Amino acid sequence: MLGRTANGLYWMFRYIERGENIARLIDAGLRMALTRSGSSDEDWDGVLQSAGVREDFDAVHGTLTGADAIDYLLRDRANPSSVMSCIEAARNNARMVRTALTRETWEATNECWIELKNTLAKRVRAADMPEAIGMIKRCTGLIRGAFHGTMLRDDVYNFSRIGTFIEQADNTARILDVKYYVLLPAIAKVGSSLDNMQWESILRSVSAHRSYSWVYDGDYSSANIADYLILNDRMPRSLAYSYDKIVSNLGYLAKAYGEKHAAHETAAATLAALRSRSINDIMDQGLHEFIEEFIVHNNRLGEEVSEGYRFYR
Amino acid sequence: MMNAGSGPRQPYQTYHEWYETQDRARLIAKSRDAENLFRKTGITFAVYGHADSAEKLIPFDIIPRIISGREWRKLAQGIEQRVIALNAFLDDIYHKQEIIKAGRIPRELIERNEAFLPQMIGFKPPGGVYTHIVGTDIVRTGEDQFYVLEDNARTPSGVSYMLENRETMMQMFPELFHINKVRPVEDYPKLLRQSLASLAPPGCSGKPRVAVLTPGIFNSAYYEHAFLADMMGVELVEGSDLRVVDGRVKMRTTRGYEAIDVLYRRVDDDFLDPLTFRPDSALGIPGIMDVYRAGNITIANAPGTGISDDKAIYSYMPEIVEFYTGRKAMLENVPTWRCSEEDSLKYVLEHLEELVVKEVHGSGGYGMLVGPTATKKERAAFAEKLKSRPGNYIAQPTLSLSTVPILVNKGIAPRHVDLRPYVLVSDKVQIIPGGLTRVALKEGSLVVNSSQGGGTKDTWVLED
């Protein structure tokens, strides 16, 4: 496979993941605005931070309002992380690697882009927001379904999956990075309704508010939530799960190509660290430091993958 | 579709009977379905110079253009003769130049032509084939009366539309293919791959590795490049994927650099090798021409083939065909006035309202004048351009093109069409039975180019 094709697949799936994640963040933000009595636009501050675009937003908009924040996150093309920008970037990458995709996967991606362009052509009215968010989830779900249902499990598949999970790990880590203080035991006023809402919002941002109750018997605690998002290897957006998948997909590539790269070592080390530690251990050592370090390593892994498999050179 | 007298022409008879039983509203709805199908599949092209650089659909008409087997056989013979002559001509002008010595073509017309590449002089491409893929543009004026408009011997495009149009028709109207015996076109990608692989360079050992070279996703024909690579099962590469390593052209793969034997390039000569041609080209591969001349890669079509389909050469095609095949050309050329010649220029200026004037080096319907439909003002403006650079233009009469039916809201209506059959050249010449029919959708219009509001339709060659 061409290095450029591997690169295109990797980014196509990173962008799909990112677009979907931004939609989820908006969803969680909307929910929070609904739940809080006397809702305020400041709730959107955290959402913009989690999306990593707080400063860019300020550069464009003077004051922060919920409506502007949503529009910026959803459809502003000047924002490279807006849902529209992400899906467009994903679709451009898909066009570039068209020969590596099944017709079904390509068409699902192309249709997702066509639908989004229509739905997001104008500012979405508040009343239409649930419908728009639902459409985004449905479209990206269809891409994923077509991909899993039709793609050959070869290196094309592996590079796509590695892109998906590096992005997913990054997204989950960034949400934790912004909200870590809510999870600190010292500060948390356990049981207060503010805490519950913040926690609920974190779980919603990773589509885990239902499953959490099942896994931890409805026991809300900061340690459990951190455990779920970081160490639980059954939770599909947790760091541990993402790295389990990254390591296995890198493993398939090593087997098929008969060679290993720095990326294999980095990914294996990160997975081993996630598996060997307990959440109390991590909290004692410092949740914030842990997350920051993780993000640095995750970025480095991305670079090592692109070097090892000749994405650019 | 209709005879001058009454009733449908013979190849349309079965279709016509079927059409009579159809509900027009349903057909019009089907037309819209077809459009959605194309958009969903991403069969789009980019229009250069459009402000929003958006991807456009080429309109598709659901009434097939039908050619009888008998008429096709005759046409195919003429095309084969012409393509053989083109290759012989190219071989000659890059070697002995007999045709110039025989005084049939002026030397300066070849040697001062930008499409003539001195780098190709004395070099024989693998298998002696210059034009691996040809798309001959043809118009029909009446029964068995065909004229060649252009020979497209560089990188003819549109073959993906031939294939997708057929695919769409078979999906929408399967019953039509039961009652008509339509010759298949869908093995084109397979034949193309075999044909390319059979012309691997001397330096190739083992199974030839074929790749398609595209300028990238912003090129107007990118969809076709990806489509062909996908259908052939070969890599779609860009210049940035390739480099010359150890005397071979290699592509950067996830496992390292791997050699390519045959490159079906959809990049113009100028951009192919910045070391040999345009130094500012970012689309090409530095040094590929050296590899080529050393016999370590096949480039399809060969660099320098543009000289054979140049509009300035076109008017000499009857002589060229006769010179190399020893027989009169079976297909007619459209009578052509070379404005570089004083008498011709005078005639052209006096008859602008009946002529089509084309730029010699232009393509795609830009910079041309269709005399009969142009306004007085447009003609006057064009006459000035003509006088200032006469050598830049040729002129041809407007032919009374035959028409085929298209579906409009009120039913069916006649429109002018042309036809581009696709020809593969290896040790044999293979002509795919069918091709791309382009149709001028505007009533009375003669311009079929997709950039100027033209559409396409499926082309049926019947088994008979």
Automatic annotation (TrEMBL), chain A:
Domain of life the protein comes from: Bacteria
Domain (DUF403): residue spans on this chain: 1-309
PANTHER family, A to Z: BLR5612 PROTEIN, SLL1039 PROTEIN
Protein name per its UniProtKB record: Putative alpha-E superfamily protein
